[in-house]
Amino acid sequence: MESLSSDKVDVVICTWNSNKPWFKRCLYSIKREIPICHLIVVDRFSKDGTQETIRRLFPEAIIIESDLNLGRARAEAIKYVDTEWFVFVDDDIELFNGWYKTIKTYLNPTIGAIAFVALPEVKWLKKYAYSSRKIAEGLRRKWVEERGIYCTNTLVRTELVRDWFPPSFLSSGEDAHLSKHIINKGV
Q: How many domains, the chain?
């Protein structure tokens, strides 16, 4: 198992009028679960108090205002990443208890990114949900090569994506494009 040269990682979130109850849960879970170096936010000029909510929890957050679409916003945020690894977290994702500790167990020199599946918070669905570990162990490289990973809550090796530049029309599906970019690097 590979280890992080520094235990702290940068976290990237893209927002746009995200100040809803789930967003606050997202921010609290990031604060609880991830040893953060920098919180990097690309915000699409939110008018609902999103930036103020971020500043209350993360006064030192780097907030970049931009009208870039999601693909380009993620690429813009990567320019600000200072750590060997960083984490993408979508603004409506709540990280589970032990998320960072668990995701670190998958690190090895052949890994370019590690993504967990996002499961909805629905009581009746919990009895059908697998643990994230079982889901991750069940995934095969072929599945990732064909479909890509989702960047909802993903640890990424920074050096592999510094040169990623998604097409300007890519307002969704950017995670599949990013996956292909990492795989094309031979990882």
A: 1
DSSP string computed for 16-80: SS--SHHHHHHHHHHHHH--EEEEEEEE---SSSHHHHHHHH-TT-EEEE----HHHHHHHHHTT
Using the structure block, give the residue that is written with the tokens 């991750």: 136
Q: Which two tokens stand for residue 106?
A: 């998958």
Query: Quick check: 42 and 64 in contact, CB under 8 A?
Result: yes
**Blockwise average pLDDT, block size 10, the chain, 187 residues:** 76 98 96 98 98 99 98 98 97 92 90 77 50 47 53 93 94 88 88
Phi-psi region at 82: left, alpha or beta (left = phi > 0; alpha = psi -120 to 50): alpha
Identify whether 4 is part of a domain: no
pTM of the complete model? 0.85
Range of the domain at 71: 9-184
CA nearest neighbour of 4 among 153, 97, 108, 151: 108
